[in-house]
């Protein structure tokens, strides 16, 4: 279940999500979280800033960091080195970020590949896995059709 599916587009839903994550409700947090939920795909800091030009870059960085810490967004790094952030529901089996992603090498758009399992990785005894990511890359259908 995504943030969008949990009806967090309503002001009440966004406020509830932020409060349940232990975050103070602010208009900026609500605006960024609502935008991430609307888009429904991982977005880079630059994409968020372009979509919300009324917010400065430092505020966006800090807000995304607070969302990461509160576990209401996950981040994934593409082969291009860019971190992208995606809103998620903590009660979803596919999140936080426990799914592969597809990155278009032409337009840079990344999408979550929900419903697909991440590979199981065995690590030596005593090691603790804190996360994993899998990014598949190529051209999205839109970019491939332009060629």
Overview of the structural elements:
The protein is of the alpha+beta class. The protein has a single domain, classed as Arc Repressor Mutant, subunit A (Orthogonal Bundle). It has five helices and six strands; from the N terminus they run ααβααβββββα. The chain has helices at 11-20, 27-39, 45-51, 57-70, 141-146; strands spanning 43-44, 73-77, 83-87, 101-104, 110-112, 135-138. The strands form two sheets. The protein has a three-stranded antiparallel beta sheet. It has a three-stranded mixed beta sheet with strand order 5-4-6, with no helix packed on it. Strand 2 and strand 3 (83-87) form a beta hairpin. The protein is globular, with a radius of gyration of 16 Å. The chain starts with 10 loop residues before the first helix and ends with a helix.
How much helix, percentage-wise, in residues? 25-40%
| CATH-derived topology | Arc Repressor Mutant, subunit A
What's the tally of helices?
Answer: 5
CATH fourth-tier homologous superfamily: Winged helix-like DNA-binding domain superfamily/Winged helix DNA-binding domain
Class derived from helix and strand content: alpha+beta
Integer count of domains: 1
Taking Cα atoms only, what radius of gyration do you get, to the nearest Å?
16 Å
Defining traits:
147 residues; alpha+beta; Arc Repressor Mutant, subunit A; 3-stranded antiparallel sheet; 3-stranded mixed sheet; 5 helices; disordered N terminus
